[in-house]
Amino acid sequence: MKRASKTLRSYASALKAFIAWNIGKGYLDTDPLRRLSLSKYSAAPKAGSERRRITQKELSALLEAAPEHRRLMYEVAVRTGLRAREIRMLRVSDLNVAKSVLMLRPETTKSRKPCVHPIPRDLAERLAAYAETGEALKIYKRFGSRKDRKRRDVPSDPLLYVSSHTGRDINVDIEAAKIPKFKPGEGKLDYHALRVTFISQVCENPNVTIKEAMTLARHSDPRLTLQTYARTSHARLSEIVGQSSQDFLTRGQEEDNSETEEVEIPLASRGLNGGGNASGIQPTEEIAFILPG
């Protein structure tokens, strides 16, 4: 199996760290990988592998083209940032409609840590209504492949049906919705791009702190949230540039129209008089302040 450069770099780093530990303990005299350079495995993504965020118009078209069970799966992904396996392992009992949260068990998350993940109220209510139909389990029994039925990550009471081929499924729906799979300068659109979209939306919100964004993305490193996942949008950047330019021009006009004038402040109004002040110091001249007009 061909591995990505980033994966190979991680493997090499782990091996070098293990060898360094062995040398420190005296189990090895020399480093057998001393000539291995990590720079050989560039962490830069390959051309065309960068994911882009899905636009609101494209998302509407995707949800309209997809069947109901995949429509809900896509909506959960783009509105919560959950990964495909995390959604697949959700049980009906993991949904708390009253609190609008999904309870992620340790064995279901990538970090192996439990999480109480908030979701929009309307989405929680629709998930609850869908769960009552038992449709997810019916689909697993009807269309689930033998591989799906044997998967340990499929619970006995699944909240949603998620196949083992989410990439293939979303490609079918992308084509049906007539959405461009790839956009030059932005990247490709696939299932994981829905998570990219969620994190980008969170980071774009001016009221969200970095810690909150990391928590919602379930990252331990802000660099992963901001550098790997967060995307900017051309529309948003154009809006920022336009607003910044307008603010700059407005301030320039205000500065040009403003004039300074010399305002003489009477000594009496400052607690002083011609005979001296409280300190006994005689003022030698009138005091004037230059104030902006």
What can you see in these coordinates?
The chain is mostly helical. It has 12 helices and 7 strands. Helix 2 (56-65) runs antiparallel to helix 3, helix 3 (68-80) runs parallel beside helix 9 and helix 9 packs antiparallel against helix 10 (210-217). The longest helix is centred in the last third of the chain and has 24 residues, at 234-257. It starts with a helix and ends with a strand.
Average per-residue pLDDT, rounded, comes to 83
Arrangement of strands in the largest sheet? 1-2-3
**Could you estimate the helical fraction of the residues in percent?**
40-55%
Distance between the termini: 74 Å
Q: What composes the largest sheet?
A: 3 strands, antiparallel
Number of strands: 7
Beta-strand percentage? 5-15%
How would the global form be characterised?
Answer: globular
Name the poorly predicted regions. Answer: 267-293
- Helix-strand topology string: HHHHEEEHHHHEEHHHHEE
> Rg from C-alpha positions?
31 Å
Q: How many separate helices? A: 12
Structural class: mainly alpha
Notable features of this structure?
mainly alpha; 3-stranded antiparallel sheet; two-stranded antiparallel ribbon; globular; disordered C terminus
